[in-house]
Amino acid sequence: MKRAIASIAFGVVAGLAASAASAATLDQVKQRGVLQCGSNTGLAGFGVPDDKGNWTGLDVDLCRAIAAAIFDDPTKVKFVPLSAKDRFTALQSGEVDVLVRNSTWTMSRDTSLGLNFAGVNYYDGQGFMVRKKLGVSSALELNGASVCTQQGTTTELNLADFFRANKIKYEVVAFATSDETVKAYDAGRCDAFTTDASGLYAERLKLTSPDEHIVLPEIISKEPLGPLVRHGDDQWFDIVKWTHFAMLNAEELGVTKANVADMAKSDNPEVKRLLGTEGKFGESIGLTNDWVVRIVKHVGNYGEIFEKNVGEGSKLKIKRGLNALWTKGGIQYAPPVR
C-alpha cells in the first residue's frame, strides 16, 4: 500500500513537472515578444537575408508561420544565422527556440542530441554539380575527381559511402562553411561540388558563370529536412509540428492566402475544424482557435511558400517532385485536424 501511495505521489509530481516543462518555451516566447529562430547563414530559397536584413526562404516562412500562429504577426521573429557546426548546440543551449535550417533527419541526431525533429518541410537528396566542360554526365564517371564539400554534415559522410560502394577513387576537399566550399569550387579548386540537390540549385546562382555548370542526375541519399525543437517540451513540439501540418492541410483543402477569410465561412467540416470555427483545436496546444487563419492569412499554405521560394516560379525553378501533396504524386502528407 505504501509503495502504491508513493508511486501515485511520484506520478502526480512527475506529471506536474512535465506540465510545467511543456509550457516553458511557449511562455518564454510570449514573454519575450519574439520567436528566436535558428536559420541558415545564407542559402537562396531557404534562408537568406538581403542587404537590409530582410529574411526570405522556405525555412524562413515556416518560422514566420509559427510567429503568426502565436502573435498574429509574422514579423515577430529574430533570425539567428547558424553554421552547420553550431546549429544543434545553439538549440540545445536555448539560444534559439526552434531550428529551421535545412537539417537532415537521421536516427543519431534524433536520439542522441536531446532534440526532436518536428516533421519534414522539404524532402531532398544529395547530388553533384560539375562544370559542363568536364564532359561528365554521371557521378559514376567521377573516378579520381576532387570533390568540394562542407565539414560536419551528412553530406561528407554520404560522399564517402557513395564512392566506397561504387569502388571509385576520389579526393575530398572539405571546408568549414558553405560559403568557403562554394567559393573553392568556383575558383576551380575541385572538379565537383556536392550537397543537397536543393542546395546545388541555390548555390549555382552564386557562381561566376552559373550557366557553365550542371547538376548531375544521381541522387545518392535520402535527406528529409525539417525543423527541430528540444526534448521535454511536448506542447512546443506540437506547435511547431502542427504549424507545418496546418499549411499542408490548407493547401490540400484549397485554403489560400487570398481566400482564407471567405473559406472561414465554409460549411465543409474539414475546413471548419482547420480554420477554428468548429472545435477547440488551437486551444488544445496553447494557441487561439483561429491559429491556422493567422498562418495562412500572413504567410500562405505550403504550396504557396514552396512556389514563391524554390518552385518553378522562383529563381531556383525546382519541381515539386516528392514535395507535392500525396494527392498529386508526392509524399507530403499531413494528419487531419479532428
TrEMBL record:
Superkingdom as given in the UniProt entry: Bacteria
InterPro entries: Bact_solute-bind_prot3, SBP_3_CS, Solute-binding_3/MltF_N
Alphabetical keyword list: Signal, Transport
Signal sequence, renumbered to the chain: 1-23
Record SUPFAM superfamilies: Periplasmic binding protein-like II
Ranges where the Solute-binding protein family 3/N-terminal domain occurs: 34-263
Pfam families xref list: SBP_bac_3
PANTHER family linked: AMINO ACID ABC TRANSPORTER PERMEASE, AMINO-ACID ABC TRANSPORTER-BINDING PROTEIN YHDW-RELATED
Recorded family membership: Belongs to the bacterial solute-binding protein 3 family.
Protein name per its UniProtKB record: Amino acid ABC transporter substrate-binding protein
Organism per entry: Chelatococcus albus
